[in-house]
Amino acid sequence: xxxxxxxxxxxxxxxxxxxxxxxxxxxxxxxxxxxxxxxxxxxxxxxxxxxxxxxxxxxxxxxxxxxxxxxxxxxxxxxxxxxxxxxxxxxxxxxxxxxxxxxxxxxxxxxxxxx
Amino acid sequence: xxxxxxxxxxxxxxxxxxxxxxxxxxxxxxxxxxxxxxxxxxxxxxxxxxxxxxxxxxxxxxxxxxxxxxxxxxxxxxxxxxxxxxxxxxxxxxxxxxxxxxxxxxxxxxxxx
Lengths: 115, 113
Known about the structure:
The complex is a heterodimer. By secondary structure, chain A is an all-beta fold. Chain A has strands at residues 4-7, 10-13, 19-25, 32-38, 45-51, 57-58, 67-73, 76-81, 90-99, 103-106, 110-114. Chain B is mainly β. The mean pLDDT of chain B is 94. The interface between A and B is medium-sized, with 21 and 21 residues.
């Protein structure tokens, strides 16, 4: 149980275009989802907390207009990287919360490469 | 400021050997501590989750300990296998309404034949 599906696993896009990454909880409802960014050989960095039906809470230094988060349903959150640039190339991971203490499940991650 | 420090940063061991990874934290108030295994290019997978009252938790060859008094945790891997090669991340969550999680930088384990 508590499976989180993240799609796509890899994406290559041209500079200036936008890319959407989906995070779905398959067998549970997630009122809260989290989006992380990870650079090579570094740990995960929280970008934003996504709450169903309300605006996402962004961490300091994360551009809201560049990283658009939509949590339209209890099973789906999306991260859209707008006007992507090569420096946005990174590994993006989502996680969904199904229990405040025990329930955090990560997606398998999305490798974004902007060329 | 909440912090989670892991040691060593990297570790190389021979297949079949045991190893122990360390995690020290300053997160307060404490809610839970989780160990994850992250293979290269994949999302983290949960190994163990411990709350304040739990001082040991096992998951197969993985055993985590927690000393809430000294704010230390360890992850012991028994009879290592090549597939144990990965990054191991310690995550500590606070007990505020936000339940904010602080991530350690991870320990990169390489198991060699």
